[in-house]
């Protein structure tokens, strides 16, 4: 599904990713774990094309997309939910959702109905500006918007940041259901160890812009093993 080979990226002359390689299989949920400043968010931005790769290769469904622009990667089936959600606060919930499928050949009425079926919490909020929603509601809106393009791979960056536990549990249930229903594949950057353990089939450890190990979800319960990775932030 997604193969990353010796991927490098930098901000100007400052290198961040130093030859990252991994593979994500169809329908797999993979977590990314690491301290603040180790390259987690940079990795997702490079995969979606917001940051140009300085070297290496990104293959998606057998196609080399390393030099493809972001909108083409999205059309091919890669969705992205950035850290901080980045919804459009002055647009209504409905218009935020419309942006999610603006570049895709879908029937608007059918897509809105399908999205509200998956995210019923949004139904009474359709005419409200995105900026008046709670943090949890905004996160669900960001997820719904990304899924409006019917991606096969979803890149999630810190989806539980600043939201209440009840909505965190709701998001876990939604993502598990979408995996079973659509065969959705997810690459997840997250600090909440319970959340990442509940969803991920395996967890990659990133240190100083390199993948240095792999953990099972069960190993996230070992305080001694996971201690050095606690206190993570974005990079």
Fraction of residues in H or I helices: 25-40%
Give the low-pLDDT segments.
230-235
CATH class: Alpha Beta
Name the CATH architecture: 3-Layer(aba) Sandwich
Major sheet: order of its strands?
Answer: 6-7-8-3-9-10
Reported for the largest beta sheet, the result is: 6 strands, mixed
N- to C-terminal distance: 25 Å
Average pLDDT metric: 90
Shape: globular
> Which structural class do the helices and strands define?
alpha/beta
Number of domains: 1
Describe the structure.
The protein has 235 residues and is an alpha/beta fold. It has a single domain (2-220), classed as P-loop containing nucleotide triphosphate hydrolases (Rossmann fold). 33% of the residues lie in helices and 26% in strands. The protein has eight helices and ten strands. The strands form two sheets. It has a six-stranded mixed sheet with strand order 6-7-8-3-9-10, with helices on both faces. A four-stranded antiparallel sheet has the order 2-1-4-5, with helices on one face. Helix 3 (93-100) runs parallel beside helix 5. The model is unreliable at 230-235 (pLDDT under 50).
């Amino acid at each position: 599904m997604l193969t990353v080979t010796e991927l490098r990226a930098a901000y100007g002359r400052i290198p961040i990713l130093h030859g990252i390689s991994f593979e994500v299989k169809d329908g797999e949920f993979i977590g990314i774990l690491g301290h603040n400043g180790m390259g987690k968010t940079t990795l997702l931005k490079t995969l979606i094309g917001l940051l140009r790769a300085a070297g290496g290769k990104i293959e998606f469904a057998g196609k080399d997309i390393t030099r493809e622009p972001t909108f083409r990667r999205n059309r091919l089936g890669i969705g992205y939910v950035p850290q901080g959600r980045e919804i459009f606060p002055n647009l209504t919930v409905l218009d935020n959702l419309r942006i999610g499928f603006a570049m895709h050949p879908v029937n608007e009425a059918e897509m809105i109905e399908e999205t509200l079926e998956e995210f019923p919490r949004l139904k009474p909020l359709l005419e409200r500006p995105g900026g008046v929603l709670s943090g949890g509601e905004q996160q669900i809106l960001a997820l719904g918007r990304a899924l409006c393009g019917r991606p096969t791979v979803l890149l999630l960056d810190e989806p539980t940041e600043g939201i209440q536990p009840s909505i965190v549990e709701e998001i876990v249930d939604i993502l598990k259901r979408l995996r079973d229903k659509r065969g959705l594949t997810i690459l997840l950057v997250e600090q909440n160890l319970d959340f990442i353990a509940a969803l991920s089939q395996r967890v990659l450890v990133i240190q100083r812009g390199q993948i240095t190990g792999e953990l099972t979800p069960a190993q996230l319960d070992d305080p001694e093993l996971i201690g050095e990775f606690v206190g993570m932030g974005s990079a």
